[in-house]
């Protein structure tokens, strides 16, 4: 039985898949199997998998007859896993060679109630545009207060509020028995499936954290903003009791999701709908540069006259400021009360 089962779901990513597989096979922990679930690809994926399987017995292809979605593919991988632990890797991402070794060292040094561990990731951004995106991400990444990053019950509020993002799709390693007990990934969610899976893992035990960028991620596209909004509503309604409990404890969960939705609608050039969400969001001064950047992307997607472009960018900054002022006012009122 291998120590770790690596699950790679893939669909029509023949160009990036070899890099992902190579990074798994190059791990300093070599007692592993690599389960690649081909989710009905129509490109050269099948041929690539045949070549890898013939060259290395650790590679185990599993073929879906039709495209079922990444969550279904991940769950297929969990069913086929033979390892004590299962780790997930998206087919356009890449692992640091010591990723599994560092995670196992942290997890196996903890008591039995610690059942999984995630690490940090960095995006592969190049060129001038990439430098600007990294700068914006750095600003957005500075939380007003440093959130808790590992534990059990105390981690739930931070995950729901999107303060902590344990990207299960490429950063998580968890006991295989726990992944199965948690019933895998929610196949009905088109977004937020990674944190939702982690919340169910937390029902079984605690999650540890390795404070290192051990995953290099490729920027990928987003579902339409309307689809993200539906998924957000479904996600938060599923955990309605926890949302109420942690918001009462000071976590800004619904407001954080409003911020996510506002940014997505901005990027699509749907400025009025974005404004409605941003007015009820957790936007603060540190978010203004990123919001203006996103609004600029929306302008490029839906070109408007120069004067209107400036109005959109200024308006975005103003809405963010109004949101911040509203929050400050609420805080002062609460303190006065």
What does the model show?
There is one protein chain. The protein has an eight-stranded mixed sheet, with helices on both faces. With 337 residues, the protein is of the alpha/beta class. It has helices at 17-25, 45-55, 70-80, 99-107, 127-140, 153-160, 168-171, 176-181, 193-202, 225-238, 240-248, 253-267, 271-278, 288-301, 306-336; strands spanning 4-10, 32-39, 59-64, 85-88, 94-95, 114-123, 173-175, 206-217. The N and C termini lie far apart (61 Å).
* Largest sheet, strands/sense/barrel: 8 strands, mixed
State the share of residues found in helices, binned by percent: 40-55%
- As a percent range, the share of strand residues is 15-25%
Count all strands and give the number.
8
Number of helices: 15
Radius of gyration from the alpha-carbon trace, in angstroms:
21 Å
Class by alpha and beta content? alpha/beta
Query: What is the terminal-to-terminal distance?
Result: 61 Å
Strand order of the largest sheet: 3-2-1-4-7-6-8-5
Which parts are unreliable, with pLDDT below 50 for 5 consecutive residues or more? Answer: 139-143, 328-337
Brief overview, please?
By secondary structure, the protein is an alpha/beta fold. It contains 15 helices and 8 strands.
């Amino acid at each position: 039985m291998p120590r770790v089962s690596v699950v790679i779901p893939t669909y029509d990513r023949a160009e990036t898949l070899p890099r992902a597989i190579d990074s798994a096979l190059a791990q300093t922990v070599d007692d592993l199997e690599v389960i690649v679930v081909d989710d009905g690809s129509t490109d050269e994926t099948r041929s690539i998998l045949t070549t890898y399987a013939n060259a290395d017995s650790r590679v185990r292809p599993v073929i879906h007859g039709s495209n079922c979605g990444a969550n279904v593919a991940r769950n297929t991988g969990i069913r086929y896993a033979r390892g004590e632990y299962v780790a997930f890797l998206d087919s356009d991402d890449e692992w640091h060679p010591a990723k599994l070794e560092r995670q196992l060292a942290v997890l196996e040094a903890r008591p039995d109630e610690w059942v999984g561990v995630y690490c940090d990731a960095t995006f592969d951004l190049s060129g001038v545009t990439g430098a600007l995106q990294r700068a914006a991400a750095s600003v957005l990444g500075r939380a007003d207060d440093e959130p808790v990053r590992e534990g059990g019950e105390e981690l739930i509020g931070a995950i729901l509020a999107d303060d902590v993002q344990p990207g299960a799709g490429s950063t998580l390693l968890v006991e295989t028995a726990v992944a199965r007990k948690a019933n895998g990934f929610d196949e009905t969610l088109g977004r937020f499936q990674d944190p939702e899976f982690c919340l169910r893992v937390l029902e079984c035990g605690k999650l540890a954290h390795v404070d290192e960028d051990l995953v290099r991620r490729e920027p990928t596209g987003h579902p339409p903003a309307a689809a993200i909004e539906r998924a957000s509503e479904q996600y938060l309604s599923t955990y309605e009791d926890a949302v109420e409990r942690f918001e009462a404890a000071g976590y800004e969960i619904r407001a954080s999701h409003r911020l996510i939705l506002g940014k997505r609608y901005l990027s699509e050039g749907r400025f009025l709908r974005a404004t409605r969400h941003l007015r009820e969001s957790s936007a603060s001064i540190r978010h203004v540069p990123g919001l203006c950047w996103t609004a600029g992307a929306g302008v490029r997607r839906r070109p408007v006259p120069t004067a209107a472009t400036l109005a959109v960018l200024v308006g975005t900054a103003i809405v963010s400021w109004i949101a911040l002022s509203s929050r400050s006012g609420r805080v002062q009122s609460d303190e006065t009360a």
